[in-house]
Specification:
alpha/beta, Rossmann fold, 12 strands, 10-stranded mixed β-sheet, about 270 residues, 2 domains, two-stranded antiparallel ribbon
C-alpha cells in the first residue's frame, strides 16, 4: 500500500514562496512516486476587485506565475504535477477541493488558519466532506518527511481509522510510537494500544506503545509534548465534529490542530 495521488492547495500569489504545505506535498510526491494535483485559486479577498492580487496583478497573471513556480519545483524533484484552477467549476472552493480529494490518497493543507478564513473553510470541507485523510502542515515546518510518527490512540473507531489510513505514511517513516493519553477517556480495553503497536509491527513498522499522563495539560498539548520529547515529526489522529441544531462543534484536539496547536504536521481522518 503506497501513496499514489496527492491533492494540495495554494493561493496563486503565494506559490513563488513555496509555502510549507505545498513543499511538503511535492516532497511526499517525490518520495512516493505519486502524482500531485495542486488547486490554485484566490481566496480571502472580498469586495470590489476580489480577483485582483495583493500586489496589483490580476488573478490570471498570478495563476500563470503559480503554474511556472510549481512546475519548476516539481521538475526539480521529478514529480508528476498538475495545477488546476477554478475556471471549470461554478461551485464553492471547498467543494471543489473535496471533490478532487475523493479520488486521491491524501490531501496536504495549511494548519493554523483563522476560523473564518476562506482557506479554513477549504480545510473543513477536505476533512469532513471528502472521506479522505488530510495532512495539516504548520507554516513553520522545516525539513523533510517524517522518520518517526506519533500515533494518537484512544481505542475509538476514529483512532483506528486514522492509524490504518496512515499506513503508507507510517511505512515511509518506518518507525511509530502509539501513544494513549491517560485519563482522557475510560477505555474499554487497556491492552488495545499495545495491540495497535503489534499490528503496526506486522506491517513492518518498528512500533512501540507509550502511556502518556495527561496531568494538567489538554490532550493535544500532551501529544505535542510527547512528539517533541520522543523526536516524532508527525502526529496521526482522528478528527471529530459534533453537529448541533445551530452550528458545528469540533472536538478539542481537532480544534487545536486546525488552529495551529501542533508544530509538526498532523495526519487526520474523520
Amino acid at each position: 500500500m503506497t501513496v499514489k495521488s496527492i491533492m494540495a492547495f495554494v493561493q496563486p500569489h503565494e506559490a513563488r514562496k513555496m509555502p510549507a504545505a505545498l513543499s511538503y506535498a511535492l516532497a511526499l510526491g517525490a518520495a512516493s512516486a505519486a502524482r500531485v494535483v495542486v488547486l490554485s485559486y484566490v481566496v480571502d479577498v472580498v469586495g470590489p476587485g476580489a480577483d485582483a492580487a495583493e500586489d496589483g496583478r490580476s488573478e490570471e497573471e498570478q495563476l500563470a506565475d503559480a503554474r511556472a513556480a510549481i512546475q519548476a519545483q516539481s521538475d526539480k524533484l521529478g514529480v508528476s504535477c498538475e495545477v488546476v484552477d477554478r475556471s471549470n467549476f461554478a461551485y464553492g472552493i471547498g467543494e471543489v477541493f473535496a471533490d478532487h480529494l475523493k479520488v486521491a490518497d491524501v490531501g496536504v493543507l495549511h494548519a493554523g488558519l483563522g476560523p473564518y478564513s476562506g482557506e479554513r473553510l477549504l480545510v473543513n470541507a477536505a476533512l469532513f466532506e471528502s472521506g479522505r485523510p488530510v495532512i495539516l502542515v504548520p507554516e513553520a515546518k522545516a525539513g523533510g518527511l517524517p522518520r518517526r510518527v506519533l500515533v494518537a490512540w484512544d481505542g475509538t473507531p476514529a483512532s483506528a481509522r486514522a492509524m490504518h489510513e496512515a499506513l503508507p505514511i507510517l511505512a515511509l517513516a518506518g518507525e511509530a510510537i502509539v501513544a494513549r493519553v491517560s485519563n482522557d477517556k475510560i477505555l474499554r480495553m487497556d491492552q488495545s494500544g499495545i495491540e495497535a503497536a503489534h499490528h503496526l509491527a506486522r506491517h513492518g513498522i518498528r512500533a512501540t506503545f507509550r502511556d502518556v499522563p495527561r496531568e494538567s495539560r489538554d490532550v493535544l498539548r500532551a501529544l505535542t509534548d510527547t512528539a517533541r520529547d520522543t523526536g516524532c515529526d508527525m502526529i496521526v489522529c482522528g478528527a471529530l465534529r459534533h453537529s448541533t441544531a445551530h452550528d458545528l462543534l469540533f472536538g478539542s484536539v481537532t480544534q487545536g490542530v486546525l488552529s495551529g496547536g501542533s508544530d509538526v504536521p498532523v495526519f487526520m481522518t474523520s
